């Protein structure tokens, strides 16, 4: 039961758990720009690990009804695993409330 798909999904799950339960609360809070930057790093970490394991191996990964290479499998499966964590985090830390456009912000057309 040591299939490459299970290994990549396990790596994705661990990275998403660490990101949303440890790293983002400590470093990002409700700042969507910090979350986005750190999420790029988390996604890059997943791709780096999967690439180091399967790049050049020629292994095809089964993704529902079609086969893909390691890059697309790692990226798409990470996005699918990350989405529920992201929705939970955004609700818990009220990220969308802090991201709403503020008309009195410096540089806006309405500020006097």
TrEMBL record:
<feature type="transmembrane region" description="Helical">
    <location>
        <begin position="40"/>
        <end position="58"/>
    </location>
</feature>
<protein>
    <submittedName>
        <fullName>Uncharacterized protein</fullName>
    </submittedName>
</protein>
<keyword id="KW-0812">Transmembrane</keyword>
<keyword id="KW-0472">Membrane</keyword>
<feature type="transmembrane region" description="Helical">
    <location>
        <begin position="70"/>
        <end position="90"/>
    </location>
</feature>
<feature type="transmembrane region" description="Helical">
    <location>
        <begin position="6"/>
        <end position="28"/>
    </location>
</feature>
<keyword id="KW-1133">Transmembrane helix</keyword>
């Amino acid at each position: 039961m040591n299939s490459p798909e299970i290994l990549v999904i396990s790596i994705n799950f661990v990275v998403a758990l660490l990101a949303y339960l440890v790293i983002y609360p400590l470093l990002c809070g409700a700042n969507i720009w910090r979350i986005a930057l750190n999420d790029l790093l988390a996604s890059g970490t997943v791709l780096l690990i999967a690439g180091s394991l399967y790049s050049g191996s020629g292994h095809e990964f089964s993704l529902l009804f079609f086969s893909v290479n390691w890059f697309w499998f790692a990226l798409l499966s990470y996005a699918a695993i990350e989405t529920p964590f992201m929705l939970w985090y955004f609700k818990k830390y009220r990220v969308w409330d802090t991201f709403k456009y503020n008309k009195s912000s410096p540089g806006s057309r309405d500020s006097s």
